[in-house]
Amino acid sequence: MTTHPLTHPQSKTGLQSLWVWIAAVAVVWIFQFFFVGYVDPYYFSIVMYSGINATLAVSLNLVNGFTGQFSMGHAGFMSVGGYVSALTTSLVVAKYPGIMGVDAGGPGIEGAILLVGALFLGGLVASLAGFLVGLPSLRLKGDYLAIVTLGFGEIIRVIVLNLNVVGGARGMANIPALTNFGWVFSVCIFTVFTIWRIVNSAHGRRFLSVREDEIAAEAMGVNTTAVKVRAFVMGAFFAGVAGGLFAHYLRYLNPQTFDFNRSFEIVIMVVLGGMGSITGSVLAALLLTVLKEALRPLQEITRLDFRMVIYSLMLIILMLNKPNGLMGTREISDVYQSFREKLRVRFGANQGSDQKGAKK
Amino acid sequence: MGIGVEFVQHLINGFSLGAIYALIALGYTMVFGILQLINFAHGEVFMLGAFAGMYFSRFFNLGAHPSFWALIATLFFSMATCGVVGFIIEKFAYRPLRKSPRINVLITAVGVSLFLQFSGQLLFGSDPKFFPQIIEAGHGFSFGEIRVNTMQVVVMVISLVLMAILQTIIFKTRLGRAMRAVSFNHDNASLMGIPTDKVISYTFMLGSSLAGAAGVLFGLIYPKIEPLMGSLPGLKAFVAAVLGGVGNVAGAVVGAITLGLAEEFLVGYVTPTFKDALAFAILILILLFKPTGLFGIRRTEKV
Fold this sequence. Notes:
The structure holds two protein chains of two kinds.
Chain A: H1 18-34, H2 41-66, H3 74-95, H4 109-137, H5 142-161, H6 181-199, H7 202-212, H8 214-219, H9 224-250, H10 260-273, H11 278-294, H12 296-302, H13 307-321, H14 332-346, H15 348-351
Helix pairs in contact in A: 1-6, 2-6, 2-9, 2-10, 2-11, 3-4, 3-5, 3-9, 4-9, 6-9, 10-11, 10-13
Chain B: H1 3-35, H2 42-59, H3 68-94, H4 102-124, E1 129-130, E2 141-143, E3 146-148, H5 150-172, H6 174-184, H7 186-191, H8 196-221, E4 224-225, H9 231-244, H10 249-270, H11 275-289
Antiparallel strand pairs in B: 1-4, 2-3
């Protein structure tokens, strides 16, 4: 794909500094402790789903966008992570009900530790699943891979449907309510940070090189299969963690929750945002989550499900007219950079003379 | 029922299921052969074929006068409709992307597939519809204890006839020769004066009309049809095409029959639970051990 320039302008906006990210997490927790109680529950749920979807979209972007492999089974990994972590916490809470802190007004530090542990476990099992699927199927090219990942999602669904431990077709209810605003957005920020750092590292260049030209990458000594599997495993890990957050927020899981449409929703977030742009994925995740809710009244009046029709039509039109999505491969730092550049040009060289080193 | 009888019964069921998969798989394989594109929307064309057949036979009230000719007329109508649908899909969704990266075409194909599924839900309603009995069920045939449903015979015979016609078109006509030329080398074919765009359109129409016929035949055996019915048979037919070697017409038929039999035997002898997962397991295995499929030719990739 020659449309994507391989050279990614190194951002000079301070995002490299770890402190920015730590500050962001701190802000999230300040919100969690002081403001969350005042938000209308309905709008709050939209915010929560936006955070979870952003995590999913960014993690899928690592596979679909940066590595150029087309996976359509992300809901499968989400489901693995969701079920594993929900099962873990359910078992632990059943044994030590004190963790949920019914009289203390909510789960305390033990609950937090349990949640983090369960999320991590869910992510690990999901990434193991990613490894198992990835190892054989990532030797395949585009279309085959898409079908295999889709089939994998289906296999997971059928397996879960027949697993009595997690309720089978009845679904799994009474999952401990351990997710809160703080966790969802901490994970989201952590995901964005990790993937952003990976992609901008020397190692990450290998992902990009596989996307740009697999044969050339191989010729340069990149072990393309290993790179692809790595991307897959990492994407699956974060999808599993997001699945765990989702499970402990909704508190009910059902095999139907993670069907093909769910995978498709994540794919369209990545495509709409721009394959290869983390900012785009986050934006598109917010946009589509809000759009889904905005379409709900229409759906209730007409009793017809317009959502998927609109999604699919959007996908076709995007591919025909603007295949790079909203952001292409640009990030918010690039946008900021070019914005500053524009200001400098408009207001003369004097004001911007301190930025002579800035790239064009 | 004796073990042997049961076995033969499963064999017959498997063959009739496989025949339907084969009709769908042919469309996949033809389109892939000529464009190197997996037409994800193909399963949805199959669904539209079933609905076209249903509305046609309802309109003329063919369910009240079941006959062989009613079936032929329904088949014809639904094949024509699907041919047009295939033409439209190719013209408006795939042709503008002829020069785009493959992943974009793939995403578009998925988009078209979902668009047809869900606009089908808006149009036809999401509850299952009943496909009328347009041919008399009769008593079928019985050989000793083995019973063969009339429907199954009809399905197998019609599939065979359609495959024979397709084979003739591909290997005995000018259009077929042009199709083979385009699938061999798109640019060279164009230099030789073959109108490639037109040939691709015809290929889509042929493949789609076969899917339409498969839709009607499916409706005969499994009379409950719904807008989302196409995705699973569509994917399974794709697996069948891969099993036989994508781009290989005879391979698609063999792959489809194999898959139909495998599913039937799994359900009959082992467990019905994993019926729908079997196809994907086969797909992963075949891609692991023999990516070219049973009859595919290995092509070296040129840089």
